[in-house]
């Protein structure tokens, strides 16, 4: 039952709300009228609703860690992967992802108000790319927990939920990489190889519009170091990973 509970919780908060956030942004773009400064109140309102779904109602003006939705997830995973702070190198404070997304949200709002619909769409596409970061981090984290830290039903379910949120996008980039992730993290997987999961994700970062620094590495705060073999990758090597591990 614990695994089912985690699938429901994570699926609701991180898959359904994730998609509805983007749906609101798409609604704003559908309503945007190019070059019409006084016609874009409705799209701006829809865009703001998307930001609200991303953030949730509990964060407060300072983004304090008290929410349950995507904003809070980004901050939690940044502690695990040492991607906090404006530069993405800290293990406390707000995630770099949330700093970056708030900038993109504000930019999209301005573009819609200005009737610059094509630029607003490009901003929405960048937002969608960035929103995959915590899903990738969560998948890698729970693959390691299951493989190396004797993770049980709860950890297996959480890994499956995070992987499910990002697998369609990975498959569009590289079906072999997606198959590796799926076979290791699917519900009922007979075994999990965390290095295979990590390598598969790393092989598609460039196609996803992401970098190794965006994801970071799995950080062991007690030891003040990355878990063995779980440090950040280097972008120059990522494109060969899947081929080399076949």
Task: Report on this structure.
- With 246 residues, the protein is mainly α.
- Helix content is 63%, strand content 2%.
- It has helices spanning 2-31, 41-55, 70-81, 96-113, 117-131, 133-148, 153-173, 175-185, 194-202, 212-215, 241-245, and strands at residues 219-220, 225-226.
- It has a two-stranded antiparallel ribbon with strand order 1-2.
- A hairpin with a 4-residue loop joins strand 1 (219-220) and strand 2 (225-226).
- It is globular, with a radius of gyration of 18 Å.
- Residues 237-246 have low confidence and may be disordered.
Q: Which properties best describe this structure?
A:
246 residues, mainly alpha, two-stranded antiparallel sheet, 2% strand, globular, disordered C terminus
Brief description of this entry?
This protein has 246 residues and is mainly alpha-helical.
> Could you tell me the strand content as a percent range?
under 5%
Number of strands: 2
Rg estimate, integer Å: 18 Å
* H and E order: HHHHHHHHHHEEH
Which strand order does the major sheet show?
A: 1-2
Instruction: Tell me the span between the first and last alpha carbons.
Output: 35 Å
Number of helical segments with 4 or more residues: 11
Assembly type: single chain
**How is the biggest beta sheet arranged?**
2 strands, antiparallel
State the shape: globular
Outline the low-pLDDT stretches. 237-246
Output the structural class.
Answer: mainly alpha
Q: What's the pLDDT, averaged over the residues?
A: 92
The helix content is 55-70%
């Amino acid at each position: 039952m614990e695994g089912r509970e985690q699938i429901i919780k994570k699926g609701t908060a991180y898959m359904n709300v994730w998609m509805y956030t983007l749906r609101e942004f798409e609604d704003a773009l559908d309503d945007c009228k190019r070059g019409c400064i006084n016609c874009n109140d409705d799209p701006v309102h829809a865009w703001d609703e998307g930001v609200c779904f991303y953030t949730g109602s509990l964060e407060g003006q300072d983004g304090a860690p008290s929410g349950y939705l995507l904003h809070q997830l980004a901050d939690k995973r940044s502690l695990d992967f040492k991607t906090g702070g404006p530069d993405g190198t800290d293990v406390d404070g707000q995630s770099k992802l949330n700093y970056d997304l708030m900038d993109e949200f504000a930019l999209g709002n301005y573009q819609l108000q200005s009737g610059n619909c094509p630029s607003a769409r490009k901003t929405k596409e960048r937002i969608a790319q960035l929103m995959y970061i915590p899903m990738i981090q969560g998948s890698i984290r729970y693959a390691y927990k299951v493989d190396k830290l004797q993770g049980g039903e709860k950890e297996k379910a959480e890994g499956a939920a995070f992987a499910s949120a990002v697998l369609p996008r990975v498959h569009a980039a590289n079906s072999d990489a997606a198959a590796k992730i799926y076979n290791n993290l699917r519900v009922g997987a007979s075994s999990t190889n965390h290095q295979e999961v990590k390598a598969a994700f790393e092989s598609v970062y460039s196609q996803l519009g992401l970098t190794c620094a965006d994801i970071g590495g799995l950080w062991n705060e007690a030891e003040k170091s990355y878990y063995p073999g779980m440090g950040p990758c280097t972008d120059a090597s990522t494109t060969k990973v899947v081929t080399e591990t076949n």
